[in-house]
Amino acid sequence: MATVTQSVSPRQDSGPSAGRKFLHGLGWFLAHTGSIIALAIAWEWLARSGLVTPFQLPTLSSVLERIWTNAMTGDLFINTAVTLYRAIAGFLIAAVVGVLLGMAMSRIAFVRWFFDPIVSVGFPMPKVAFLPVIILWLGVYDASKITMIVVDAAFPVITATIVGLRGVDQYLLWSARNMGASNRELLWQIALPAALPQIMTGLQVALPIALILAVFTEMVMGGYGLGGAMMQASRFADSRGVFAGILEIAVVGYVLVKAMAILRRRLLIWHQEAMAPSTV
Amino acid sequence: MKTLIRYLPLLILAVAWEAASRLQLVSSLALPPLSDVIVAWWDLLKSGELLTNGAASLWRASAGLFLAIVIGATLGIFMAWWRPVNVVLSPLVEALYPMPKSALIPVTVIWLGFGDGSKILLILLGCMLPVTIGAYNGARGCDQALVWSARSMGASRMRMLWDVVVPSATPELLNGIRTALALSFILLVSSELIVAREGLGYLIGTLGANGTYDAMYAVVLTVAFIGFAADRIYQVIQDRMLRWQQ
């Protein structure tokens, strides 16, 4: 079955001259940044045109200036660090809890019986609705924020682990057992590595969720962090601060998601998917 | 009987909740007994508060989601169908996809105020990209042999788009819409919790602030149930629509 894959490989085997390589690279760069630059120019133009008030849309240059000021006073780094700390702490707890629970659910019948309906009902729920309840229990500091992140981010990890372990090739398990592997070796050396691509997919879903909830819980409860700072700006009708916050949050999200994709390629370098051309 | 055994754990949790609260194992302020929550839910329903706020929320979610599906699917299919659109848009999609959309809440409020408009815009912005990416991946994975044979049979470009590319993009597109459906509830509740004058999220916020926690729990469970039910209903529809694939 021939499927269309539009992968333009930057490295070509028949070596073109250095100049053509440079032109090719330049075109690649322009194609990939052109629309973002165009969007930036459109923003600046719209803000200066007088069609909108500076409150509705401050100029991009003034927003960048604000980000620079935030960076110079150190606020940007403190807020980024606080948000990242909460997001990553919640993500890591969710990853460990999710993988362990997924493993337990696929191996122990009783655990599966108990958690299966809870996971299948809990996964599609909008769990942010429980935020006021968690605030009621744990207050407005880190504990409740991280708990909210764990509650939300654990579900994709649990289901991905179950799906991954279920899909492990039976022949692999049989032949390993045949060669005298113990149950424990079977789990750690055969089943888990074979399930790793699926588990990584679950983690890749969970990471943005963790960041979203870190920002959102800060927006609701306040305190330091990128979301908190942006909400603070919004309360004082400081729209430059709001837009600066959005750009800062967007960049953090982009970097996190990219880093996760790179980590996946590193971890799965032995796997055949690493040979396939990447999409997005 | 089978379903009873399957969902027994949920019943056990409900009984444990009631018991823990009645036996004062936890403060009944932090966890009012489930029976009180059910009574409070009934009162909210009778007073009409649940219905008016629920209707406001559902209208926002469905309007935002509808716009997101129409715009997102069109965009995604055109990105796969026509190369220049892809070259222009895919870097934007890639840059904006990982951005936490709830961060846009203050901006949509600045633009459209506290009412319906800002929530619908937020849901549109947040839900569009998963639909776009689903439609794009689906249309891109369209079997090239099918396209060729349609062309050799003399199909016009528009006909090929409708009869070959769109149907083959449907499975991935429907998955994207499912993600968007879940996101729409999350964004709705998020934005209503932060700024709103009506809606279920607003109701949760005011009830919590008044300290009427049994009613707050009632609304929280209602929102959670609506989100869960919407996903299940969608799954049934999705299976129906993909029956031809088998």
Automatic annotation (TrEMBL), chain A:
<keyword id="KW-0812">Transmembrane</keyword>
<comment type="similarity">
    <text>Belongs to the binding-protein-dependent transport system permease family.</text>
</comment>
<feature type="transmembrane region" description="Helical">
    <location>
        <begin position="26"/>
        <end position="46"/>
    </location>
</feature>
<keyword id="KW-1133">Transmembrane helix</keyword>
<keyword id="KW-0813">Transport</keyword>
<feature type="transmembrane region" description="Helical">
    <location>
        <begin position="84"/>
        <end position="106"/>
    </location>
</feature>
<feature type="transmembrane region" description="Helical">
    <location>
        <begin position="146"/>
        <end position="165"/>
    </location>
</feature>
<dbReference type="GO" id="GO:0005886">
    <property type="term" value="C:plasma membrane"/>
</dbReference>
<keyword id="KW-1003">Cell membrane</keyword>
<dbReference type="InterPro" id="IPR000515">
    <property type="entry name" value="MetI-like"/>
</dbReference>
<feature type="transmembrane region" description="Helical">
    <location>
        <begin position="236"/>
        <end position="257"/>
    </location>
</feature>
<dbReference type="Pfam" id="PF00528">
    <property type="entry name" value="BPD_transp_1"/>
</dbReference>
<feature type="transmembrane region" description="Helical">
    <location>
        <begin position="118"/>
        <end position="140"/>
    </location>
</feature>
<keyword id="KW-0472">Membrane</keyword>
<dbReference type="InterPro" id="IPR035906">
    <property type="entry name" value="MetI-like_sf"/>
</dbReference>
<dbReference type="GO" id="GO:0055085">
    <property type="term" value="P:transmembrane transport"/>
</dbReference>
<protein>
    <submittedName>
        <fullName>Uncharacterized protein</fullName>
    </submittedName>
</protein>
UniProtKB/TrEMBL annotation, chain B:
<keyword id="KW-0472">Membrane</keyword>
<feature type="transmembrane region" description="Helical">
    <location>
        <begin position="94"/>
        <end position="114"/>
    </location>
</feature>
<dbReference type="InterPro" id="IPR000515">
    <property type="entry name" value="MetI-like"/>
</dbReference>
<feature type="transmembrane region" description="Helical">
    <location>
        <begin position="177"/>
        <end position="195"/>
    </location>
</feature>
<keyword id="KW-1003">Cell membrane</keyword>
<dbReference type="InterPro" id="IPR035906">
    <property type="entry name" value="MetI-like_sf"/>
</dbReference>
<dbReference type="GO" id="GO:0055085">
    <property type="term" value="P:transmembrane transport"/>
</dbReference>
<dbReference type="Pfam" id="PF00528">
    <property type="entry name" value="BPD_transp_1"/>
</dbReference>
<keyword id="KW-0813">Transport</keyword>
<feature type="transmembrane region" description="Helical">
    <location>
        <begin position="58"/>
        <end position="82"/>
    </location>
</feature>
<keyword id="KW-0812">Transmembrane</keyword>
<comment type="similarity">
    <text>Belongs to the binding-protein-dependent transport system permease family.</text>
</comment>
<keyword id="KW-1133">Transmembrane helix</keyword>
<feature type="transmembrane region" description="Helical">
    <location>
        <begin position="215"/>
        <end position="234"/>
    </location>
</feature>
<protein>
    <submittedName>
        <fullName>Uncharacterized protein</fullName>
    </submittedName>
</protein>
<dbReference type="GO" id="GO:0005886">
    <property type="term" value="C:plasma membrane"/>
</dbReference>
